[in-house]
Amino acid sequence: MFAAIDLGSNSFRMQIGQHDGVAIRVIKSMRDPIRLAAGLDSDGYLSEAAIQSAITSLKGFNRILRNYSLDAVRVVATNTFRIAKNVALFLPLAEKAIGYPIEIISGEEEGRLIYMGVASLLAVSNGTAHEKRLVIDIGGGSTELILGDGHSIERVESFGVGTVGQSLTFFPAGHIDAACYDAAILSARSRFEDAAPPYLPQHWQNAYGSSGTVRAIYDVISKNNLGNGDLSYDSLVALKSRFIEFGHVEKIIMPGLNPDRAGTIIGGLAILIALVQELEIPALQPIAAGLRMGVMWDLYLRSTRRDRREQAVREFSQHFHVDSIRANRVADDAVVLFRQLKPESDALEKYLYWSALLHEAGMAVSQTNYHKHAAYLIENADLPGFTTREQRTMSRLALSQKGNLRKVSEALIDADFAKAVLALRLAIMFMHCRLKIDFSQLRLKMKNKIECEMKQDRIADHPTLSFWLEKEQAWWKEVGVEFVVRGN
After folding, report:
1. Which one, of 427, 396, 398, lies nearest residue 410 by Cα?
2. pLDDT score, position 126
């Protein structure tokens, strides 16, 4: 059983689902329309009222989660968390309230997860495993466009225009007229026009709208017999005309539209009209799948050892022409050494392995200080499946692979991280010295000090090993850790 929590700019949502052998069946859903993005002031700071509203909502989610026996929980945060200037102060409070780490995902990662949810549902429901499709998701703070073929994603882009900002900017105090709508649509079109060519109809067979915004607009159109009853340009314009007739958000009363959604639907409609015009979409198909379903599928695939982060690392490695023989040797040796150090948990093992596979990626930039280049690339690259926090951990490991340890001294306070750093550095050292280690004859410990014991003849046969071990002892001494080497 898996739980996906989506901390969006317009609302916080939660789904709990269970894989039934074919599909993920949703057994619990919850939506809290807290309008987080509306709590951003003109300088980009979340107000105290918005923060407290979010914390109250997250505490409520936490109480519900405790009633289920869950295999995995993932909490993802989107655009407002990405842009709020005081998010560093807000995030620890939010994590304490929900009881789980919160991952602030990029717009591109958000798009990939959305597509995963849509593709998985379509494959189960109508067998369209190889359909070329466009998926549109209009959120509170951003809009994602994803082009794919079956389960494969070919292109994903995120645009910083969403329902909350568009509604607040172009419909002040809830006032609606034709001029407001014309300005809102024109503004949205300007965001998409340059990116439009790859998403034109010749590149896909069907277009889908995955967000709650698109589904809500479809419900209103179909239940009020507007236009053709579908998500075509004529139907969208008919709905726009009805909104203009009401003149104000508070006066909108229509079958299929919850009153609490009217304030953001007006902006969402402007964005959708802009997309249909700019991308020349004949009609969109609404689909009840998106980010949360994608998160649950991602958790399920990880549980079955089909982790898409593995593919991301391989693609990154190939892109930067990493020597796979050297990388695999270091990665395998680093994991063996890490296990011998007996960490408190195996939480860092995968990140150590992946960091080792990518430790020489920086050589594509320069041989000089390649560890720094590798660290930068790993932290800032678009690595599908990885969160910002995970990439930062791997970046620190890559940075720590050689030279002084002062640059990661704060991270070494974590005993398991220090053990991962030691394992990586030694694995790289042995590879550079062309020393094939018999791990059954190597003893490595790290508690109050580092103790390394190996065959004396191995040290004698590799003169550079003694040199590097002495350097290593000095570097660890600089950060207050004694490193003892013994021959047996």
Report:
1. 396
2. 64
Q: Do strands 206-209 and 72-77 pair parallel, antiparallel, or not at all (unpaired)?
A: unpaired
What is the pLDDT at residue 49? 94
The residue assigned the tokens 């791997």 is 394
Say what the pLDDT of residue 123 is: 80
| Distance in angstroms (rounded) separating the CA atoms of residues 91 and 102 | 8
Q: Where are the alpha helices (DSSP H) in 224-319?
A: 233-246, 262-278, 291-303, 308-319
Measure the CA–CA gap between 363 and 366, rounded to whole angstroms.
Answer: 5
Between CA 273 and CA 80 the distance in angstroms is 23
Of 108, 206, 197, the closest CA to residue 150 belongs to 206
Q: Are 285 and 206 in contact (CB under 8 A)?
A: yes
Residue written as token pair 């590799």: 462
Point out which residues pair with 135 in neighbouring strands: 146, 208
Spatial CA neighbour of 214 closest among 276, 151, 150: 276
**What letter does residue 291 receive in the DSSP assignment?**
H
Coil, strand or helix at 17: strand
17 burial type by CB count under 10 A (0-12 exposed, 13-18 middle, 19+ buried): buried
Looking at residue 125, its pLDDT comes to 67
Q: Please give the distance of CA 76 from its chain centroid, rounded to a whole number.
A: 7
Q: What are the residues whose beta carbons fall under 8 Å from the beta carbon of 304, sequence distance 6 or more?
A: none
Alpha-carbon distance of 349 to 307, in angstroms, equals 14
With tokens 């490695």, the residue in question is 317
Q: Following CA atoms 324, 327, 328, 332 in sequence, which dihedral angle do they give, to the nearest 10 degrees?
A: 180
Averages of pLDDT over each 10 residues, the chain, 488 residues: 93 93 89 89 92 96 94 92 92 95 88 90 70 92 91 88 92 94 96 94 94 91 92 96 94 89 92 96 91 91 79 91 94 94 90 96 92 94 82 95 93 94 94 80 90 76 81 93 86
What CA–CA distance (Å, rounded) separates 307 from 296?
13
